[in-house]
Amino acid sequence: MKVIAVRQKILKANSQAARENRARFSRERVCVVNILGSPGAGKTALLERIAGSNDLSMAVLEGDPETAMDAERMEKAGAAVIQVVTRGTCHLDANMVQLALPRLDYRNRDFLFVENVGNLLCPASFDLGETMRWVVLSTAEGADKPFKYPAAFKTAKAVVINKIDLLPYLDFSMDQVKDGLAQICPKARVFKVSCKTGEGIDPLMGWLRGFSRNPAKTNSKS
Ligand code: MG
Ligand code: ZN
User: How close is the Cα of 111 to the center of ligand 2, in Å?
Assistant: First the structure.
């Protein structure tokens, strides 16, 4: 009983901070993308690809239990970046984001990407105040994930199926994953990509550009 009460209290405090973050992002006209996915799904690799396309300016908030390895990768890719080390906590919460923002040069950039801690479970419960969520799912993880982790997929605006270059070597069923996504998140945009080869990145970038809040770069879609 106590455990449930504590959890509710935590989530209540989180939604207050998330509301503040959302109001701030809307005022500052920055589109914030919260990226969920298992460890090794390719979240950082996807962000490297996006940074490499360089007609968009971006900042990245990296969440990891330990190390600044991903922040170093994003710095090399040319993004403004801050690493949040959660010291073992398996998700980011809205307060962590709030505390990190003053130290990140994200204003006047097209996008702020938040790379959540690699985990398909609890990051789904923590609203960070983001504009939208993506889930990155790699073919190596298996096609059953939307069924097993519906909470993560349910709120996704986009699902990025990564590592399609590995399809010849795996028993990954594209039909099964499509079926799962159609049931769990029928409105999500689905992109099939290989962050390694760059295949499929262009359609994703085309779609993403529509969300840039910089009026000079915004096309008709929003
Ligand atoms: Mg990463
Ligand atoms: Zn967690």
Answer: 25
